[in-house]
């Protein structure tokens, strides 16, 4: 997706809209550094002050993080996600786990009732990817694969409000999972999600909900080693 030169009326609002679209569409994913100010000026064909004002507005709304001497990075995919990130970044791990448990348990139960064949194919593929990431031993890759899998479970519930809420909490949940997993994957920490997928496939909402509800607390209750 390329940026285009906006009309001369309401330039700042138009630039804000284009930059926001780059973020929400995934062209600029969370954690990535956006083009520099001179690059944006060249691509958009507007004055430096207009670009600066637009970037500051998106930073104020929580979508961008301006780091002096480093650049500007994507912090969240929506204004609500940005608010969630700021508000709950320092929340208690147990409280985050409780919210994740409630959302994913509800989603898994609904997914067992509403999943389509396409949803099941997606879950099967993402489960395989999650296991491959675990076997590969790369903690960051595993966290990404695990988050994608759980997002697919929520998507299979086909509840737009639940899906949007989970997505907006995504950064908070990802940070929690990254901290919980730590820099090294250990065999004793592995949790098999095959039972969850099979429960969704067979339409067993009770089992699916129970499986999903237990995962966050299994993470919290597992034994820790020195340095974690």
TrEMBL record:
- CDD domains cross-referenced by the UniProt entry: WHTH_GntR
Q: Where is the HTH gntR-type domain?
A: 9-77
Any idea which UniProt keywords this protein has? DNA-binding, Transcription, Transcription regulation
SUPFAM superfamilies according to UniProt: GntR ligand-binding domain-like (SSF48008), Winged helix' DNA-binding domain (SSF46785)
InterPro entries of this UniProt entry? Answer: GntR_C (IPR011711), TF_FadR/GntR_C (IPR008920), Tscrpt_reg_HTH_GntR (IPR000524), WH-like_DNA-bd_sf (IPR036388), WH_DNA-bd_sf (IPR036390)
Keyword Iron-sulfur assigned to the entry: answer is: no
Question: Pfam families recorded for this chain?
Answer: FCD, GntR
List the GO molecular function terms: DNA binding; DNA-binding transcription factor activity
PANTHER family listed in its UniProt record: REGULATORY PROTEIN GNTR HTH, TRANSCRIPTIONAL REGULATOR, GNTR FAMILY
Name of the protein? FadR family transcriptional regulator
Give the organism, scientific name. Answer: Streptomyces qinzhouensis
């Amino acid at each position: 997706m390329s940026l285009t030169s906006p009309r001369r009326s309401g330039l700042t609002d138009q630039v804000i809209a284009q930059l926001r679209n780059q973020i929400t569409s995934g062209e600029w994913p969370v954690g990535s550094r956006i083009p520099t100010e001179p690059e944006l000026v060249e691509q958009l064909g507007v004055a430096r002050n207009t670009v600066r004002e637009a970037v500051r507005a998106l930073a104020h709304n929580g979508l961008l993080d301006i780091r002096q001497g480093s650049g500007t990075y994507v912090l969240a995919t929506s204004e609500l996600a940005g608010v969630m990130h700021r508000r709950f970044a320092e929340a208690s791990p147990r409280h985050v786990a409780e919210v994740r448990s409630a959302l994913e348990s509800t989603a898994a139960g609904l997914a067992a009732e509403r999943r389509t064949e396409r949803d099941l194919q997606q879950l099967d593929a993402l489960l395989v990817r999650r296991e491959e990431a675990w076997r590969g031993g790369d903690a960051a890759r595993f966290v990404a694969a695990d988050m994608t899998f759980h997002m697919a479970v929520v998507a299979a519930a086909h509840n737009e409000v639940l899906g949007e809420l989970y997505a907006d909490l995504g950064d908070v949940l990802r940070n929690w999972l990254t901290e919980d997993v730590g820099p090294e994957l250990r065999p004793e920490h592995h949790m098999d999600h095959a039972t969850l997928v099979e429960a969704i496939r067979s339409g067993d909402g009770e089992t699916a909900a129970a499986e999903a509800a237990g995962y966050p607390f299994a993470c919290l209750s597992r034994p820790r080693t020195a340095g974690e």
